[in-house]
Amino acid sequence: MTHGGFSEQQQEMLTGHYTVEVADAATRDMLLKLVGLMSSRQQEERTRLSEQNIEALLGVLLPQDPTPLARRDLELDNAGLRAEFLKTVPCLTAGDLSDMAGHEAKNRSVTASRWKAQGRIFSVPFQRAELYPAFQFADGEPIAAMARVLAALPASMSNWQRAFWFTSPNGWLGGDKPSARLADPVAVVVAATREGQPIG
Fold first, then answer.
1. CA of 82: how far to CAs of 77, 157, 176, in Å?
2. Is 116 exposed, middle or buried (0-12, 13-18, 19+ CB in 10 A)?
3. pTM above 0.85, yes or no
4. What are the pLDDT digits (tens) for 44-78?
5. How many angstroms separate the CA atoms of 5 and 82, rounded?
């Protein structure tokens, strides 16, 4: 008997539905394993195609490289941290340091530049100027411990990273901020040294 020009056997071949009678149990088990393997391969192919579709959709949803977006978010976070630092941590200008030290040189940045070159203090850049966190000074001079602590910190740290390190709670100091423990230079130097050591 034919349907639409096809025999019943041809119809079954086209639709992919077959009834197989197998008397041999071993042959039946082998066929079941084969069918299972084919299903597994089909699932893998579906997963692969699904991943391709997701990648294509991402290309539509994120037409640009997402890396710059992540970088922008990091820069915004960092700018926020710097703004918070400048709002909460007193800082001095090079002129302030000159006045504080009682120096009368015409070049108001000489004192700050000398102390900085000697590794006794550090500054953070802000709007084409250098600002000096006030916790580094006492009685018009850099705190003696500052040079030792700065030397112990990793050389790769930027000045802003140093600023955040000094003003963040530190586990090696029992949660105290290094800037608040400069009267205990040994402990702060140890914490600074630990900063450069690998974790683990």
1. 9, 15, 20
2. buried
3. no
4. 777 777 777 766 666 666 656 656 667 787 888 88
5. 80
